[in-house]
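Running this now, will post back.
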Amino acid sequence: MTDLNKKFIEILESNKDLILRICGAYAKDATEKEDLFQEVTIAIWKSLDSFQGNSAISTWIYRITLNTCIRLSLRSKNTKVETIKLNSIHFENLQEKADNQEDEIQFIKLQTCIQQLTEPDRSIVLLHLEELPYREITSIIGISENHVAVKMKRAKMKPLTCMNHG
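Update: finished.
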């Protein structure tokens, strides 16, 4: 096995969960989530030799994952009838906390509300839910830290309003 193959396997193993969470946020079902994961994996493989280490490997992985999911999501919207996505976000740490029926209902409402956000806002909220600092979100999204803070403040109000009225 070459060094590049070893590096790829190590990167994929250590970042598999975060890739799956982001893919789950853009997928309509488990099959689509697997397809997105496969596309992200291919994109990482194709880009691996171009990674220069100017950012953390996780930042680079987030960027590839988000860009791939957004690109494929937009492509699918242009070719298919849009459907309502209800159970597409799967954050393991949030799901584990949903230990009673009321928590489960709130979790599903949150999923639905996040799906209603615009692509840029959804990306920022997802990265925030991953507990990334604004500085890292900035390097992934490509906007200023101040702009991330402003967009996050506005974006997080939308799911809160949706959950209280939905």
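The two ends are 53 Å apart (CA to CA). More later if anyone needs it.
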